[in-house]
Write a structure and sequence with these properties.
Elements: H1 3-6, H2 8-26, H3 39-53, H4 60-79, H5 87-104, H6 112-121, H7 123-126, E1 131-140, H8 147-157, E2 170-175, H9 176-183, H10 185-193, E3 200-204, E4 208-218, H11 225-255
Antiparallel strand pairs: 1-2, 1-4, 3-4
Length: 261
Amino acid sequence: MSRLGREPLVHFVVVGAALWGIHALTRPADEAPPIVVDEALVAGLERQHAQRTGRPPEDPDQLVDDWVREEVLLREALRLGLERDDPIVRRRLVQKMELLLAAAAEPAPPDDATLAAYLAEHADAFGQAERVAFEQAFFARERHPDAEAAAQEALAAGEPSGDPFPLGRVQSPIDHAGLAGRYGPAFAAAVFALEGEGWQGPVTSRFGAHLVRLTTREPARPAELAEVRPAVERAWRREVRERRTGEAIRALVERADVVRP
C-alpha cells in the first residue's frame, strides 16, 4: 500500500466522501434533513450573541427564529446552486474546506527524536550564523563637513571618541543579516571583512562614518535542539500539516469525476 493510502486523514476524506455519495444517491431528491433546534444550538446562539454584544439576548426566541430563517434561506440558496456563480462565496467555501482539512491534518506532539532528525535535515535554517561584536566611534555628517576625513584624523590621533550615536558605542554580538538591517548591507559587509585587532576604518553607513574595533567574532555553528526546540517544532508541524493537507486534497481530486475537453 502506498504512503498516501496509509495516511489516516486520506482515509477519513475518502470514506467520508464515499458515505456522502451513497447517502445522496439513495435519498429522494426532494428529501431534506430536518432543521433541528435543540438545547445545544440555543446555547450556542446565546453565547455568540453575548460575545458579539457583551450582554445576553433580550428575546432568545427571536434569536432562534432569526437563525431558522437564515438556515432556510441558506439551504434554498445551496439547492439552487447560487454558490457556484458567486466567486466570493465560492472562494470562502474553499477556504473553509482548506481550514477543515488543515485542522484534521494537525499532527500529534512530536518526540525529541523526531525533532532532532528534522533539525539535522534543516540545520542551515536553525544554526547560528557567524556573529561579531564591536566598539565604534561615530562621526555624524551633520557635525562634520567630511565625516570620513574626521574619522581618519581621529584614527591617526589615537583613541577616538566620536559623536553621540543613537544605537550606542558598543554593539553586542550580531549576525550579518541583523547588522545589515540596522546599518545597511555595505556597512555589514565591510565590518565582517575586517580582520585583526585595534581601531579600523572608517566604515560608512547611512548614518555617517564609523571607526570600528572588533571585540569578539563567533564562528557559525549548528544549533542544539534545546536552544531552538519551539522554532523547530513549529516548522515541523507546518511541514507535516501542509503535506497531509495536500495529500488529502489530491485524494479528493482523484475521486472527482472531471470531464475535460
